[in-house]
Write a structure and sequence with these properties.
This protein has two helices and nine strands, in the order αβββββββββα. The chain is mainly beta. It has two domains: 1-23 and 217-226, no CATH class; 25-209. Strands 1, 2, 3, 4, 5, 6, 7, 8 and 9 form a nine-stranded antiparallel beta sheet that branches.
């Protein structure tokens, strides 16, 4: 059984990492922020079935087809609507799956607008309110959202499929660039996490441009890991 799991892991690593090296990636936006659970049926446990996942923060870098002016505006994001359907434990890793949710990017003028403020113990008087009080320039759905948490140190990573569905800049996206974006990131424990939030988040959203795939044999694939 252990040998089978090892071979499956090697195959997964090889098949997923090799093609990515050959892909051309189109970055859409970078983001940083914090997350929390709402509702939180079992406080003290992260990712339990029925718990809601919320993330919010700033978007310091945006790229085409989005049009941004970071000198004049503050860009923020809010993701919500994600509900845990349960988790699988493998060693010290908790693999949490979520139902579909949404994410929106907002544009708020620095002059006359409201500076985003996390506050404490969200939701509160300023969060998520100050992160979504601008113009929604890009909105979309997050599907196949999976969060892998290392329970030994509280760090983790997550990935989902992002499909653009709305926002004032929807028309900027060609029809063939509105679906299939990879939304991914990592979570960690930082000293500056506000009270009531769970993790610090850092991630990006990008679109993989397909290229020619190089075929290989199972024997050659295994040999590369000996």
């Amino acid at each position: 059984m252990r040998r089978l799991l090892t071979l499956m892991l090697l195959a997964a690593c090889a098949l997923s990492s090799a093609p990515r090296e050959a892909r051309a990636q189109s970055l859409l936006f970078d983001y940083v922020g914090f997350d929390y659970e709402l509702p939180d049926p079992l406080p003290g446990q992260f990712g339990e079935a029925g718990s809601g996942y919320v993330g919010l923060g700033t978007v310091p870098f945006l790229f085409a087809p989005l049009v941004a002016n970071t000198m004049a505006n503050e860009y923020t994001y809010v993701m919500s609507g994600l509900t845990s359907t349960g988790f699988l434990t493998v060693a010290n890793f908790r693999i949490i799956t979520y139902s579909a949710g949404t994410i929106s990017i907002y544009e708020d003028p620095k002059l006359g607008g409201t500076t985003a403020d996390f506050g404490t113990n969200p939701p509160n008087a300023v969060a998520p309110g100050t992160f979504q009080d601008g113009t929604a320039i890009c909105t979309g759905t997050l599907t196949s959202f999976t969060f892998v948490l290392d329970t030994s140190n509280g760090t983790g990573s997550f990935e989902a499929v992002f499909n653009v569905t709305g926002g004032t800049q929807l028309a900027n996206f060609p029809l063939n660039q509105r679906a299939g974006w990879t939304f991914s990131g990592s979570s960690g424990n930082a000293l500056n996490i506000p009270v009531g939030y769970d993790h610090q988040l850092d991630g990006q959203t990008f679109l993989d441009a397909p290229v020619k795939v190089q075929r290989t044999s199972w024997g050659r694939l295994k040999a590369g890991y000996r």
